[in-house]
Design brief:
The chain is mostly helical. It is 65% helix and 0% strand. The protein has a domain at 56-115.
Length: 116
């Protein structure tokens, strides 16, 4: 089942909304049921692109913070693993626990950063 809304990502490289198959995504949604034409859909995307140009720096900033947090988390996990394995009572189970926690928290941090 397709949603009534079509989500299209804003590109940080090219300042516009883009999708791999906007026509297919439009036709696969419920928008035609509400008598919204593809031309109207494209005009809305173009208008949104123009409106978002002023905020490109902020979008890039939030994306960078999200990725930096993920990288810092990975470095902390590696350091914790090295620190616990080099101790006298080193336990590989701690490293596995750290990695599992990392893979639990990374999607959460990524999703939260995308919400901004």
């Amino acid at each position: 089942m397709n949603p009534e809304l079509v989500y299209i990502n804003y590109s940080n490289v090219i300042p516009k909304y883009k999708a791999s198959d906007p026509k297919g995504r439009f036709e696969g949604s419920d928008l035609p049921k509400y008598e919204i034409t593809f031309k109207s859909f494209q005009n809305t995307l173009n208008l949104c692109t123009i409106m978002m140009r002023s905020y490109r720096g902020k979008i890039w900033f939030y994306d960078t913070i999200g990725y930096a947090t993920i990288v810092v988390g990975m470095l902390i996990i590696i350091l914790l693993g090295v620190a616990t394995s080099s101790s006298e009572k080193g336990n590989w189970g701690n490293m596995v626990l750290y990695i599992l926690l990392y893979f639990i928290f990374v999607p959460i941090v990524y999703k939260v950063s995308q919400c901004f």
